[in-house]
Amino acid sequence: APAPPPAQHLFSDPAEIEALRGNLLAWYDKCKRDLPWRRLAAAEPDADRRAYAVWVSEIMLQQTQVATVIDYYNRWMQKWPTLQALAQASLEEVNELWAGLGYYSRGKRLQEAARKVVSELAGQMPRTAEDLQKLLPGVGRYTAGAIASMSYGQATGVVDGNVIRVLCRLRCIGADSSSPAVIERLWDMANALVDRSRPGDFNQALMELGATVCVPKAPLCGECPVKQHCRARRRKLFGKPAPVPDVEDCGVGSCPLCPPAAEPWDSSLGVTNFPRKAAKKPPRAARTATCVLERRGCHGALEYLIVQRPSSGLLAGLWEFPSLPLAQGLQEEKQREVLADHLRAWTGRPVAAGGLRFIGEVVHIFSHIHQTYVVYSLPLDGDVTLDPALSPSRWVTEKEFHASAVSTAMKKVL
Protein backbone atom coordinates (compact mmCIF):
# COMPACT_ATOMS: atom_id res chain seq x y z
CA ALA A 1 0.00 0.00 0.00
CA PRO A 2 1.28 3.51 -0.74
CA ALA A 3 2.51 5.55 2.18
CA PRO A 4 -0.10 7.93 3.59
CA PRO A 5 0.61 11.63 3.00
CA PRO A 6 2.17 13.35 6.01
CA ALA A 7 -0.10 15.79 7.81
CA GLN A 8 1.87 18.82 6.66
CA HIS A 9 0.47 18.36 3.15
CA LEU A 10 -3.11 18.51 4.42
CA PHE A 11 -5.24 21.01 6.29
CA SER A 12 -5.87 19.53 9.73
CA ASP A 13 -5.81 22.52 12.12
CA PRO A 14 -9.39 23.84 12.55
CA ALA A 15 -8.12 27.29 13.50
CA GLU A 16 -6.02 27.53 10.34
CA ILE A 17 -8.91 26.35 8.18
CA GLU A 18 -11.23 28.95 9.73
CA ALA A 19 -8.66 31.72 9.23
CA LEU A 20 -8.08 30.73 5.60
CA ARG A 21 -11.82 30.72 4.91
CA GLY A 22 -12.30 34.15 6.44
CA ASN A 23 -9.35 35.75 4.67
CA LEU A 24 -10.28 34.28 1.29
CA LEU A 25 -13.96 35.25 1.49
CA ALA A 26 -13.14 38.79 2.65
CA TRP A 27 -10.79 39.19 -0.31
CA TYR A 28 -13.39 37.77 -2.71
CA ASP A 29 -16.10 40.12 -1.50
CA LYS A 30 -13.78 43.05 -2.16
CA CYS A 31 -11.91 41.97 -5.31
CA LYS A 32 -14.09 39.57 -7.34
CA ARG A 33 -14.53 40.28 -11.02
CA ASP A 34 -17.89 41.49 -12.30
CA LEU A 35 -18.95 38.64 -14.60
CA PRO A 36 -22.37 38.23 -16.27
CA TRP A 37 -23.09 34.77 -14.85
CA ARG A 38 -22.36 36.01 -11.34
CA ARG A 39 -24.71 38.97 -11.79
CA LEU A 40 -27.41 36.72 -13.24
CA ALA A 41 -27.12 34.09 -10.50
CA ALA A 42 -27.05 36.71 -7.72
CA ALA A 43 -30.22 38.38 -9.04
CA GLU A 44 -32.17 35.14 -9.56
CA PRO A 45 -34.32 34.09 -6.56
CA ASP A 46 -35.36 30.75 -8.09
CA ALA A 47 -32.75 28.08 -7.33
CA ASP A 48 -33.37 26.06 -10.50
CA ARG A 49 -33.08 29.10 -12.77
CA ARG A 50 -29.95 30.08 -10.86
CA ALA A 51 -28.58 26.58 -11.38
CA TYR A 52 -29.21 26.85 -15.13
CA ALA A 53 -27.31 30.16 -15.29
CA VAL A 54 -24.37 28.65 -13.41
CA TRP A 55 -24.47 25.43 -15.44
CA VAL A 56 -24.26 27.20 -18.81
CA SER A 57 -21.33 29.31 -17.63
CA GLU A 58 -19.41 26.35 -16.22
CA ILE A 59 -19.81 24.31 -19.41
CA MET A 60 -18.69 27.24 -21.57
CA LEU A 61 -15.71 27.97 -19.32
CA GLN A 62 -14.32 24.44 -19.70
CA GLN A 63 -11.06 24.77 -21.68
CA THR A 64 -12.04 28.34 -22.67
CA GLN A 65 -10.91 31.73 -21.37
CA VAL A 66 -13.31 34.04 -19.54
CA ALA A 67 -12.85 36.88 -22.04
CA THR A 68 -13.93 34.60 -24.90
CA VAL A 69 -16.93 33.18 -23.04
CA ILE A 70 -18.59 36.46 -21.99
CA ASP A 71 -20.10 37.34 -25.38
CA TYR A 72 -21.21 33.77 -26.07
CA TYR A 73 -22.79 33.54 -22.62
CA ASN A 74 -24.74 36.77 -23.00
CA ARG A 75 -26.08 35.74 -26.43
CA TRP A 76 -26.98 32.26 -25.14
CA MET A 77 -28.90 33.50 -22.10
CA GLN A 78 -30.69 36.11 -24.20
CA LYS A 79 -31.82 33.44 -26.68
CA TRP A 80 -32.54 30.66 -24.14
CA PRO A 81 -33.07 32.30 -20.72
CA THR A 82 -34.42 29.09 -19.17
CA LEU A 83 -33.66 25.42 -19.30
CA GLN A 84 -37.12 24.82 -20.80
CA ALA A 85 -36.34 27.23 -23.67
CA LEU A 86 -33.09 25.41 -24.41
CA ALA A 87 -34.86 22.05 -24.42
CA GLN A 88 -37.10 23.27 -27.26
CA ALA A 89 -34.19 24.49 -29.43
CA SER A 90 -32.78 22.48 -32.32
CA LEU A 91 -29.25 21.13 -32.33
CA GLU A 92 -28.60 23.23 -35.44
CA GLU A 93 -29.46 26.40 -33.49
CA VAL A 94 -27.20 25.33 -30.63
CA ASN A 95 -24.32 24.61 -33.00
CA GLU A 96 -24.78 27.95 -34.75
CA LEU A 97 -24.53 29.89 -31.51
CA TRP A 98 -21.64 27.74 -30.27
CA ALA A 99 -19.65 28.11 -33.51
CA GLY A 100 -16.16 29.42 -32.77
CA LEU A 101 -16.22 28.51 -29.07
CA GLY A 102 -14.58 25.12 -29.66
CA TYR A 103 -15.15 21.68 -28.10
CA TYR A 104 -18.54 21.57 -29.81
CA SER A 105 -19.79 18.47 -28.03
CA ARG A 106 -20.24 20.63 -24.92
CA GLY A 107 -23.20 22.48 -26.44
CA LYS A 108 -24.75 19.27 -27.69
CA ARG A 109 -24.52 17.58 -24.27
CA LEU A 110 -25.87 20.69 -22.56
CA GLN A 111 -28.97 20.58 -24.73
CA GLU A 112 -29.34 16.80 -24.28
CA ALA A 113 -29.24 17.26 -20.52
CA ALA A 114 -31.78 20.10 -20.66
CA ARG A 115 -34.16 17.87 -22.62
CA LYS A 116 -33.68 15.10 -20.08
CA VAL A 117 -34.54 17.43 -17.18
CA VAL A 118 -37.73 18.50 -18.96
CA SER A 119 -38.82 15.09 -20.24
CA GLU A 120 -37.66 12.73 -17.48
CA LEU A 121 -37.23 14.85 -14.34
CA ALA A 122 -40.43 16.93 -14.55
CA GLY A 123 -38.39 20.07 -15.20
CA GLN A 124 -36.68 19.86 -11.79
CA MET A 125 -32.90 20.06 -11.63
CA PRO A 126 -31.13 17.52 -9.40
CA ARG A 127 -30.03 19.36 -6.26
CA THR A 128 -26.95 17.52 -5.05
CA ALA A 129 -23.56 17.09 -6.68
CA GLU A 130 -24.00 13.32 -6.61
CA ASP A 131 -27.35 13.40 -8.44
CA LEU A 132 -26.25 16.07 -10.90
CA GLN A 133 -23.29 13.95 -11.95
CA LYS A 134 -25.31 10.75 -12.07
CA LEU A 135 -28.36 12.04 -13.94
CA LEU A 136 -27.16 14.71 -16.38
CA PRO A 137 -25.06 13.86 -19.46
CA GLY A 138 -21.95 16.01 -19.78
CA VAL A 139 -21.93 16.99 -16.10
CA GLY A 140 -18.77 15.74 -14.43
CA ARG A 141 -17.58 15.92 -10.86
CA TYR A 142 -16.36 19.52 -11.05
CA THR A 143 -19.45 20.93 -12.81
CA ALA A 144 -21.75 19.06 -10.43
CA GLY A 145 -19.92 20.49 -7.42
CA ALA A 146 -20.02 24.00 -8.85
CA ILE A 147 -23.77 23.90 -9.56
CA ALA A 148 -24.64 22.27 -6.22
CA SER A 149 -22.57 24.68 -4.13
CA MET A 150 -23.36 27.90 -5.99
CA SER A 151 -27.08 27.26 -6.60
CA TYR A 152 -28.27 24.95 -3.85
CA GLY A 153 -25.85 25.69 -1.01
CA GLN A 154 -24.40 22.18 -0.76
CA ALA A 155 -21.13 22.25 1.19
CA THR A 156 -19.10 20.45 -1.42
CA GLY A 157 -15.74 21.45 -2.85
CA VAL A 158 -14.62 21.84 -6.45
CA VAL A 159 -11.34 21.02 -8.14
CA ASP A 160 -10.44 22.62 -11.47
CA GLY A 161 -7.12 23.78 -12.92
CA ASN A 162 -7.06 26.94 -10.83
CA VAL A 163 -7.88 25.10 -7.61
CA ILE A 164 -5.23 22.45 -8.34
CA ARG A 165 -2.60 25.17 -8.67
CA VAL A 166 -3.65 26.98 -5.48
CA LEU A 167 -3.84 23.85 -3.32
CA CYS A 168 -0.57 22.41 -4.65
CA ARG A 169 1.21 25.63 -3.75
CA LEU A 170 -0.48 26.03 -0.38
CA ARG A 171 0.70 22.58 0.67
CA CYS A 172 3.84 21.99 -1.46
CA ILE A 173 2.28 19.10 -3.37
CA GLY A 174 4.88 18.27 -6.02
CA ALA A 175 3.77 14.87 -7.29
CA ASP A 176 2.16 14.76 -10.74
CA SER A 177 -0.99 16.84 -10.25
CA SER A 178 -2.82 15.02 -13.04
CA SER A 179 -2.42 11.59 -11.43
CA PRO A 180 -5.60 10.02 -10.00
CA ALA A 181 -4.05 9.63 -6.54
CA VAL A 182 -3.12 13.31 -6.28
CA ILE A 183 -6.45 14.48 -7.73
CA GLU A 184 -8.30 12.42 -5.13
CA ARG A 185 -6.26 14.02 -2.33
CA LEU A 186 -7.02 17.47 -3.73
CA TRP A 187 -10.75 16.69 -3.73
CA ASP A 188 -10.47 15.59 -0.08
CA MET A 189 -8.73 18.88 0.68
CA ALA A 190 -11.29 20.99 -1.20
CA ASN A 191 -14.15 19.29 0.63
CA ALA A 192 -12.44 19.87 3.99
CA LEU A 193 -11.79 23.55 3.27
CA VAL A 194 -15.12 24.65 1.76
CA ASP A 195 -16.97 27.14 3.94
CA ARG A 196 -20.16 25.56 5.27
CA SER A 197 -22.21 28.76 5.32
CA ARG A 198 -21.04 30.17 1.94
CA PRO A 199 -19.90 27.15 -0.10
CA GLY A 200 -20.62 28.68 -3.51
CA ASP A 201 -18.80 31.92 -2.73
CA PHE A 202 -15.87 30.03 -1.21
CA ASN A 203 -15.47 27.82 -4.28
CA GLN A 204 -15.65 30.83 -6.56
CA ALA A 205 -13.12 32.63 -4.36
CA LEU A 206 -10.67 29.73 -4.59
CA MET A 207 -11.00 29.63 -8.38
CA GLU A 208 -10.80 33.43 -8.60
CA LEU A 209 -7.59 33.38 -6.59
CA GLY A 210 -6.04 30.95 -9.07
CA ALA A 211 -7.27 32.93 -12.07
CA THR A 212 -6.14 36.38 -10.96
CA VAL A 213 -3.43 36.10 -8.27
CA CYS A 214 -2.00 32.58 -7.99
CA VAL A 215 -1.46 32.43 -11.75
CA PRO A 216 0.78 29.87 -13.51
CA LYS A 217 3.69 32.25 -14.11
CA ALA A 218 4.69 35.33 -12.09
CA PRO A 219 2.07 34.88 -9.35
CA LEU A 220 1.25 37.98 -7.28
CA CYS A 221 2.25 36.47 -3.94
CA GLY A 222 2.37 39.87 -2.20
CA GLU A 223 -1.35 40.38 -2.95
CA CYS A 224 -2.46 36.90 -1.91
CA PRO A 225 -5.03 36.87 0.91
CA VAL A 226 -3.88 33.44 2.12
CA LYS A 227 -0.11 33.87 1.76
CA GLN A 228 0.47 33.14 5.44
CA HIS A 229 -0.92 29.64 4.84
CA CYS A 230 1.26 28.94 1.78
CA ARG A 231 4.06 26.43 2.32
CA ALA A 232 5.49 27.05 -1.16
CA ARG A 233 5.93 30.73 -0.32
CA ARG A 234 7.48 29.84 3.02
CA ARG A 235 9.94 27.57 1.29
CA LYS A 236 10.76 30.32 -1.21
CA LEU A 237 11.39 32.83 1.59
CA PHE A 238 13.43 30.60 3.88
CA GLY A 239 15.09 28.27 1.41
CA LYS A 240 15.28 24.50 1.24
CA PRO A 241 15.22 22.97 4.71
CA ALA A 242 18.02 21.02 6.30
CA PRO A 243 18.67 17.38 5.28
CA VAL A 244 16.85 16.17 8.41
CA PRO A 245 13.15 15.91 7.43
CA ASP A 246 10.84 18.19 9.35
CA VAL A 247 7.43 19.79 8.83
CA GLU A 248 8.64 21.35 5.56
CA ASP A 249 10.28 18.26 4.05
CA CYS A 250 8.73 14.82 4.04
CA GLY A 251 11.81 13.01 2.82
CA VAL A 252 12.14 12.26 -0.88
CA GLY A 253 11.02 8.81 -1.92
CA SER A 254 8.58 8.03 0.87
CA CYS A 255 5.92 10.73 0.50
CA PRO A 256 3.33 10.27 -2.31
CA LEU A 257 2.75 14.03 -2.53
CA CYS A 258 6.32 15.38 -2.52
CA PRO A 259 8.22 16.20 -5.72
CA PRO A 260 9.94 13.13 -7.20
CA ALA A 261 13.64 12.72 -6.49
CA ALA A 262 14.42 13.35 -10.15
CA GLU A 263 12.78 16.80 -9.96
CA PRO A 264 14.06 18.50 -6.81
CA TRP A 265 13.10 22.00 -5.66
CA ASP A 266 14.40 24.67 -8.06
CA SER A 267 15.06 27.83 -6.05
CA SER A 268 14.88 29.99 -9.20
CA LEU A 269 11.24 28.97 -9.74
CA GLY A 270 9.99 29.73 -6.24
CA VAL A 271 6.31 28.92 -5.76
CA THR A 272 6.01 28.03 -9.45
CA ASN A 273 7.78 24.76 -8.64
CA PHE A 274 4.18 23.70 -7.98
CA PRO A 275 2.14 22.11 -9.40
CA ARG A 276 4.09 19.50 -11.33
CA LYS A 277 2.46 17.99 -14.39
CA ALA A 278 3.30 15.07 -16.58
CA ALA A 279 4.76 16.03 -19.95
CA LYS A 280 2.04 16.61 -22.56
CA LYS A 281 1.91 14.46 -25.64
CA PRO A 282 2.54 16.56 -28.74
CA PRO A 283 -0.53 16.90 -30.98
CA ARG A 284 -0.62 14.49 -33.90
CA ALA A 285 -0.25 15.94 -37.39
CA ALA A 286 -3.10 15.55 -39.87
CA ARG A 287 -3.71 16.84 -43.40
CA THR A 288 -7.08 17.33 -45.06
CA ALA A 289 -7.92 18.34 -48.62
CA THR A 290 -10.74 20.88 -48.72
CA CYS A 291 -12.48 22.29 -51.78
CA VAL A 292 -14.51 25.49 -51.94
CA LEU A 293 -17.08 24.79 -54.68
CA GLU A 294 -18.48 28.04 -56.10
CA ARG A 295 -21.46 28.88 -58.31
CA ARG A 296 -23.56 31.89 -59.20
CA GLY A 297 -26.97 31.73 -57.54
CA CYS A 298 -30.28 32.69 -59.15
CA HIS A 299 -29.77 36.33 -58.14
CA GLY A 300 -26.17 36.43 -59.30
CA ALA A 301 -24.64 36.20 -55.84
CA LEU A 302 -21.69 33.88 -55.34
CA GLU A 303 -22.66 30.73 -53.42
CA TYR A 304 -20.62 28.01 -51.76
CA LEU A 305 -21.43 24.35 -51.15
CA ILE A 306 -21.27 23.26 -47.51
CA VAL A 307 -21.89 19.76 -46.19
CA GLN A 308 -22.63 18.50 -42.69
CA ARG A 309 -20.15 16.46 -40.70
CA PRO A 310 -21.17 13.19 -38.97
CA SER A 311 -23.12 13.46 -35.72
CA SER A 312 -20.22 12.10 -33.64
CA GLY A 313 -16.50 12.67 -33.50
CA LEU A 314 -14.49 15.84 -34.05
CA LEU A 315 -16.64 18.92 -34.88
CA ALA A 316 -19.73 16.70 -34.81
CA GLY A 317 -22.73 18.06 -36.71
CA LEU A 318 -20.97 21.20 -37.94
CA TRP A 319 -20.93 22.33 -41.57
CA GLU A 320 -17.82 22.46 -43.74
CA PHE A 321 -16.62 22.62 -47.31
CA PRO A 322 -16.35 19.13 -48.88
CA SER A 323 -13.22 17.68 -47.31
CA LEU A 324 -11.21 14.50 -47.36
CA PRO A 325 -8.47 13.30 -44.95
CA LEU A 326 -5.16 12.80 -46.74
CA ALA A 327 -2.64 10.03 -46.15
CA GLN A 328 0.74 11.26 -44.96
CA GLY A 329 3.29 11.86 -47.72
CA LEU A 330 0.72 12.03 -50.54
CA GLN A 331 2.09 13.98 -53.52
CA GLU A 332 0.08 16.96 -54.79
CA GLU A 333 -0.90 15.25 -58.05
CA LYS A 334 -2.35 12.32 -56.11
CA GLN A 335 -4.03 14.71 -53.66
CA ARG A 336 -5.87 16.32 -56.56
CA GLU A 337 -6.96 12.95 -57.91
CA VAL A 338 -8.42 11.64 -54.64
CA LEU A 339 -10.15 14.98 -54.00
CA ALA A 340 -11.59 15.02 -57.54
CA ASP A 341 -12.97 11.50 -56.96
CA HIS A 342 -14.51 12.65 -53.68
CA LEU A 343 -16.13 15.69 -55.31
CA ARG A 344 -17.82 13.62 -58.02
CA ALA A 345 -20.25 12.35 -55.41
CA TRP A 346 -21.24 15.88 -54.41
CA THR A 347 -21.49 17.40 -57.88
CA GLY A 348 -23.00 14.41 -59.69
CA ARG A 349 -20.61 14.94 -62.59
CA PRO A 350 -16.99 14.09 -63.41
CA VAL A 351 -14.46 16.46 -61.87
CA ALA A 352 -11.11 16.91 -63.60
CA ALA A 353 -8.22 16.93 -61.16
CA GLY A 354 -6.55 19.58 -63.30
CA GLY A 355 -9.53 21.88 -62.87
CA LEU A 356 -8.96 22.20 -59.13
CA ARG A 357 -7.21 25.48 -58.34
CA PHE A 358 -4.74 25.27 -55.47
CA ILE A 359 -5.25 28.22 -53.11
CA GLY A 360 -2.89 27.50 -50.21
CA GLU A 361 -2.73 25.82 -46.82
CA VAL A 362 -4.47 26.71 -43.58
CA VAL A 363 -3.14 25.48 -40.24
CA HIS A 364 -5.53 25.09 -37.31
CA ILE A 365 -4.49 23.72 -33.92
CA PHE A 366 -6.98 21.59 -32.01
CA SER A 367 -6.10 20.42 -28.50
CA HIS A 368 -4.76 17.10 -29.78
CA ILE A 369 -4.41 17.62 -33.56
CA HIS A 370 -2.14 19.88 -35.60
CA GLN A 371 -4.44 20.13 -38.60
CA THR A 372 -3.40 21.38 -42.04
CA TYR A 373 -6.12 22.07 -44.59
CA VAL A 374 -4.91 21.93 -48.20
CA VAL A 375 -7.35 24.33 -49.86
CA TYR A 376 -8.57 24.18 -53.45
CA SER A 377 -11.37 26.00 -55.26
CA LEU A 378 -13.57 24.90 -58.13
CA PRO A 379 -16.05 27.16 -59.95
CA LEU A 380 -19.09 25.33 -61.36
CA ASP A 381 -21.24 26.35 -64.30
CA GLY A 382 -24.96 25.67 -64.41
CA ASP A 383 -27.17 24.02 -61.83
CA VAL A 384 -25.89 21.25 -59.57
CA THR A 385 -28.41 18.77 -58.18
CA LEU A 386 -27.42 17.58 -54.74
CA ASP A 387 -27.95 13.90 -53.95
CA PRO A 388 -30.29 13.58 -50.94
CA ALA A 389 -28.82 10.14 -50.21
CA LEU A 390 -25.56 11.78 -49.17
CA SER A 391 -24.94 13.74 -45.97
CA PRO A 392 -26.98 16.96 -45.67
CA SER A 393 -25.62 19.70 -47.94
CA ARG A 394 -26.68 23.13 -49.14
CA TRP A 395 -25.59 26.17 -51.10
CA VAL A 396 -25.02 29.34 -49.08
CA THR A 397 -23.97 32.92 -49.70
CA GLU A 398 -21.03 34.32 -47.76
CA LYS A 399 -23.42 35.94 -45.28
CA GLU A 400 -25.33 32.67 -44.83
CA PHE A 401 -22.04 30.81 -44.44
CA HIS A 402 -21.01 32.97 -41.48
CA ALA A 403 -24.46 32.57 -39.91
CA SER A 404 -24.22 28.78 -40.18
CA ALA A 405 -22.74 26.36 -37.65
CA VAL A 406 -19.26 26.32 -39.17
CA SER A 407 -15.97 25.93 -37.34
CA THR A 408 -13.31 28.59 -36.96
CA ALA A 409 -11.09 26.48 -39.21
CA MET A 410 -13.60 26.67 -42.08
CA LYS A 411 -13.85 30.43 -41.67
CA LYS A 412 -10.08 30.54 -42.06
CA VAL A 413 -10.41 28.43 -45.22
CA LEU A 414 -12.91 30.85 -46.76
What does this structure look like?
This protein is α+β, with helices and mostly antiparallel strands. Helix content is 43%, strand content 12%. The protein is built from 16 helices and seven strands. It has helices spanning 14-31, 36-43, 47-61, 66-79, 83-87, 91-98, 105-120, 129-135, 141-152, 161-170, 180-193, 199-212, 231-238, 332-347, 398-403, 408-413, and strands at 284-296, 302-308, 319-320, 323-326, 357-365, 369-379, 393-396. Strands 1, 2, 3, 4, 5, 6 and 7 form a seven-stranded mixed beta sheet that branches. It starts with 13 loop residues before the first helix and ends with a helix. GO terms for molecular function: 4 iron, 4 sulfur cluster binding; 8-oxo-7,8-dihydroguanine DNA N-glycosylase activity; adenine/guanine mispair binding; metal ion binding; oxidized purine DNA binding; purine-specific mismatch base pair DNA N-glycosylase activity.
Rg over CA atoms, rounded to whole Å, is: 26 Å
The portion of residues forming beta strands comes to 5-15%
Oligomer: single chain
Helix-strand makeup class: alpha+beta
Helix content: 40-55%
Cofactor: [4Fe-4S] cluster
Protein name: Adenine DNA glycosylase
Function: Involved in oxidative DNA damage repair. Initiates repair of A*oxoG to C*G by removing the inappropriately paired adenine base from the DNA backbone. Possesses both adenine and 2-OH-A DNA glycosylase activities.
Family: Belongs to the Nth/MutY family.
